[in-house]
Amino acid sequence: MLKSIVIAALIVLAIACGSDSDDSAAVAPDSDGTNEYGFDVSMTARPGSTFTIDDVKAAGWKSSKEFPVDQLEGATAVWFGFYQQKNLEVWVYDDHEDAVDLGSGPAEEIVAATRGVSGGGAGPYMKQTTHYGAYGIVGNLLILCESEVAVCESLADALP
């Protein structure tokens, strides 16, 4: 009898855990910057401001590596580094409009492809190591944030 109950419980558990749902498509941002679960995946701040990578460093971001800009249309610089113990990729554009018009599309694709994913996928240069759960456009900067948009917001608040 006990054996039958254990087998039945295992079958129920296997059915419950065997869902084939694809969560990567469910996290793409909708028109208000949230995914279908209500989590913010993007933010925009300080549209009239223009920042340099030195401004980002002065805000507490630690640069690690600069990448070529050939994979991002309109970007003038692409940097990888750390802020609040999270990986951040910073894309620098000439102005806010370019960051929005040229950077939003690639950033949304990266967030949709890597949020909640384990084992691969990331920004244009950190393909197998970093997963970006959000991005922020702050002035002329587009910032890919490792975990959540709050990290982007914190960096935006720390910029001069």
Structural account:
The chain has 160 residues and is of the alpha+beta class. The chain has one domain. The chain contains 5 helices and 6 strands. It has a 6-stranded mixed β-sheet. A hairpin with a 2-residue loop joins strand 3 and strand 4. The radius of gyration is 19 Å and the shape is globular.
Fold topology:
Blueprint: H1 2-17, H2 23-26, E1 42-45, H3 53-58, E2 62-67, E3 77-83, E4 86-92, H4 96-114, E5 134-138, E6 141-145, H5 149-158
Parallel strand pairs: 1-5
Antiparallel strand pairs: 2-3, 3-4, 4-6, 5-6
What tags apply to this protein structure?
single chain, 160 residues, alpha+beta, 5 helices, 21% strand, globular
Compact description:
This protein has 160 residues and is of the alpha+beta class. Helix content is 34%, strand content 21%. It has one domain.
- Strand arrangement, largest sheet? 1-5-6-4-3-2
User: What radius of gyration results from the CA coordinates?
Assistant: 19 Å
Q: Please state roughly what percent of the residues sit in beta strands, choosing from under 5%, 5-15%, 15-25%, 25-35%, 35-45% or over 45%.
A: 15-25%
What is the number of strand segments?
Answer: 6
How much is the average pLDDT?
Answer: 75
Order of helices and strands: HHEHEEEHEEH
The dominant shape is globular
Distance between the termini: 70 Å
Helical residues, percent: 25-40%
Number of domains: 1
